[in-house]
Write a structure and sequence with these properties.
Chain lengths: 396, 369
């Protein structure tokens, strides 16, 4: 009898220990708040990433809750609070305008970690449970810009356009640093291979507006733009490009299905590393960085598949070469010798890095001959490059 | 040669019913909702292969899952009801005010502006909040009375006028945000996040309780005003027939303008509650289309404030259910919206059967009798 009991106890103990092994993650529950749903390329990028992380970490559906179509209003606070009630120990929000409502929730629930993408206030909010995250996506944009420049060169060489006609059109969402930094780095990438490239930018004043993005792309094409890129989150621009037969470079997701004959490549922030990082941190009881900026080394900055049927020959090699130089530090995207503002080379730029809500710039971000963008250690992860450089015209 | 056939009675004809007994009317509505749920369940199974019970339970959880969800639901009901109450007097008068959205937004803007500019002035909440209250009501009244004056004096079309005023209000808000928040994605952010100046206080440690109490009081007020006051009677008469109103000595112009002032004040009040008691910010989407949904709430309730409590609850319940389905079942929110659409379709549709009767052509036998 004793022997049987001993065996049973031993078996239970084995199972119990086996269950205890890699299961700290069983206590983690993450809530993800999205401004739109999967129809927005921006939100789809987050949703795909969290689902992939859920799968790779073996989390159950009840440990990952995703709430879509949450406005940048009290709705965001309500959604966050409901997630806390549901047992989430991490709440993540994906849109710039969610930030204050996340801070409001973070003040109220000090035991829950609140992580916010693209935000600027983690360093000034004075809360140990509120964090910002972004990535050095300007480097990814620069590489996508190289693909654009190569395509422009191909058009010039084939006689389709003259060198002066190498004009890029860009559909931007809102005129502030995140968008401006994105199109400037893209343009600098294009001009690093096609010297005569110029760019025209229009803003839609909305993150997601299919009709407006489509119209803006059409307008740019009519204006003589021979290649289009965008930082606005709908299918509007890629579809307009496919219809007009104008090559397109996208953001966040691969648009090969929207533009089989025009999509070249997309740059994107891969949020998987960050989701993994915050889930691991909570599971292991370690701290989440106040401000996190992913890059090539963390796998946060990525390019989607290069569509070789549309891209110019040699694009892949050119991107690889530039990527290696960016990683080694041999080239800098915002090298001040590579661009001018109103005809002048910059030696100093005071940016609004410390977000006190006052919109007053206070920090010089140019040193050692380059504009030091998204430096989370010394400055912050969210972009602060908000200049209009020569070669880019912005339609107000 | 063709023989002339005797003219046949049409297969179906529709007649107006006498008043249906209440139990029967309730039964019709219950049956309508039951059919709506059955149709939605069928559709869900076809589209998603999921258990419809799981989906309906997710829908229910959206409003009743936790105490906080109940509170959030009551807050949303209160806001929708507040705006529905605001549009009611004008609609009762057959003044088609579809400008509630803009009136609420302008009221909200007034509160937000006072919070923004006076947040650092050292004024205590005891002074600032009453100022915001008065400011919102006044601006809401101004926004509503403009089309009313044009209607009363020049008989302009109030539907178009009030609709266009919504877009003007949204643009004014965009301009204000652009000048206050000089960088960013058109978002003002929470005003006075750290000082909480101009924020309605929490009651019993909970947000929104004051909002809910205020709107409950307003419901009683509007009910009494519409049913028992002289002004409420005048509104009803003008709504039935302007000529009758004139004949019995009612000053129609005065009633139109006065009623729109009251409507506008209530919309402004809703704006005040949205800013001071909930969001503490201003965006052009702050009213979120409630200015239009409120018309449906008021109409479905036949302008009766007591029934409006139920209709606004129904719409909020469906809306919250839709987003809860998306979250719990990992389906796109559109599935929830399809279900909402089906349910509303049946609810509106059943009103037809309550008011009208469908007669089929009687069979030959019966005709011979």
């Amino acid at each position: 009898m004793k022997r049987i009991i001993a065996i049973i106890v031993a078996i239970i103990a084995v199972f119990a220990f086996a269950a205890c092994g890699p299961t700290e993650k069983h206590d983690v529950k993450i809530g993800v708040i999205c401004l739109h749903d999967e129809n927005s390329t921006y939100d789809a990028n987050f949703i795909n990433a969290i689902k992939a992380v859920q799968k790779s970490l073996g989390l159950s559906d009840s440990q990952v809750i995703i709430r879509t179509n949450v406005d940048e209003s009290i709705d965001c606070y309500n959604a966050a609070a409901e997630m806390v009630d549901a047992g989430c120990n991490i709440v993540f929000a994906d849109s710039f305008g969610h930030e204050d409502f996340m801070i409001q929730a973070a003040q109220e629930f000090p035991n829950v970690q609140f992580c916010h993408a693209t935000g600027t206030k983690a360093k000034t909010a004075g809360l140990s449970n509120f964090h910002n995250a972004f990535a050095s996506i300007y480097e990814g944009r620069y590489l996508a810009g190289i693909a654009a420049g190569m395509k422009l060169n191909e058009m010039i060489e084939s006689g389709k356009i003259t060198a002066d006609q190498a004009k890029i059109g860009y559909v931007g969402a809102w005129p502030y640093a995140e968008v401006k930094s994105g199109y400037t780095s893209f343009f600098l990438g294009a001009r690093s291979v096609c010297q005569s490239a110029t760019m025209k930018v229009v803003f839609t004043m909305s993150w997601f507006d299919i009709a407006k993005e489509k119209e803006s792309a059409e307008k740019l094409i009519n204006d003589g733009c021979v290649l289009i890129s965008q930082h606005a989150d709908s299918e509007g621009a890629p579809k307009a490009c496919e219809k007009a037969g104008v090559p397109n470079i996208a953001y966040n997701i691969d648009t090969g299905d929207l533009g089989p004959n025009t999509a070249i490549i997309s740059s994107k922030i891969d949020w998987e590393p960050y989701f993994k990082l915050i889930i691991d941190a909570v599971a292991n009881g370690t701290a989440i960085p106040t401000d996190y900026c992913g890059d090539f080394s963390t796998g946060s900055v990525a390019l989607t598949e290069l569509h070789e049927n549309v891209a110019a020959a040699g694009t892949k090699a050119a991107i690889e070469a530039a990527k290696a130089k960016l990683i080694s530090g041999e080239i800098k995207v915002f090298d001040t010798s590579k661009f001018t503002v109103e005809g002048k080379t910059l030696t100093e730029y005071i940016a609004d890095v410390i977000d006190n809500g006052d919109y007053v710039p206070e920090t010089n971000v140019i040193h050692d001959g380059y504009f030091d963008e998204s430096n989370a250690k010394d400055f912050r992860s969210a972009p602060y490059f908000d200049l209009t450089i020569d070669g880019i015209t912005v339609e107000q | 040669m063709m023989e002339a056939k005797p003219k046949k009675e049409p297969l179906i004809h529709i007649t107006k019913r006498d008043v249906m007994p209440l139990w029967k009317a309730i039964l019709v509505r219950v049956i309508a909702i039951a059919i709506a749920l059955a149709v939605s369940a069928g559709l869900v199974v076809i589209l998603t292969q999921k258990n419809p019970l799981e989906i309906f339970s997710a829908m229910f959880n959206g409003s009743f899952g936790t105490p906080r969800k109940i509170l959030n639901m009551l807050q949303d009901v209160a806001m929708l009801l507040c705006i529905a109450l605001a549009v009611t007097p004008a609609f009762r008068m057959k003044f088609w005010n579809i400008g509630a959205e803009g009136q609420v937004l302008m009221g909200a803007l007034a509160s937000a502006a006072l919070m923004y500019f006076l947040g650092g002035s050292g004024l205590p909440n005891g002074v600032l909040i009453p100022m915001m209250f008065i400011g919102s009501l006044a601006v809401g009244m101004i926004w509503a009375v403009i089309p009313a004056i044009f209607k009363a004096i020049w008989n302009t079309n109030e539907t178009l006028f009030t609709l266009m005023m919504n877009y003007v209000a949204m643009q004014i808000i965009q301009i204000c945000i652009a000048s206050w928040a000089t960088s960013g994605s058109g978002v003002m952010g929470v005003i006075n996040l750290n000082t909480k100046l101009g924020w309605l206080p929490d009651l019993f440690g909970q947000k929104y309780i004051l909002n809910i109490i205020f709107v409950a009081l307003l419901t009683v007020f509007v009910f009494i005003y519409m049913k028992y006051s002289k002004q409420g009677y005048e509104i009803a008469v003008v709504g039935e027939s302007e000529n009758t109103a004139r004949y019995i000595g009612i000053n129609v112009k005065k009633v139109i303008i006065r009623t729109m002032l009251i409507s506008g004040a209530m919309c402004g009040f809703a704006g005040f509650l949205l800013v001071s008691g909930a969001s503490h910010t201003i965006t052009k989407d702050l009213a979120g289309g409630m200015g239009f949904t409120a018309i449906m709430v008021s109409w479905l309730a036949k302008f009766n404030p007591a029934i409006m409590v139920g209709t606004s609850f129904l719409l909020v319940f469906l809306d919250k259910g839709a987003s809860s389905i998306a979250m719990e079942c990992r389906l796109n929110e559109s599935v929830g919206e399809i279900i909402t659409g089906i349910i509303i379709f049946f609810i509106i549709g059943c009103e037809f059967f309550i008011r009208y009767k469908i007669n089929f052509r009687s069979s030959g036998k019966e005709a011979a009798k």
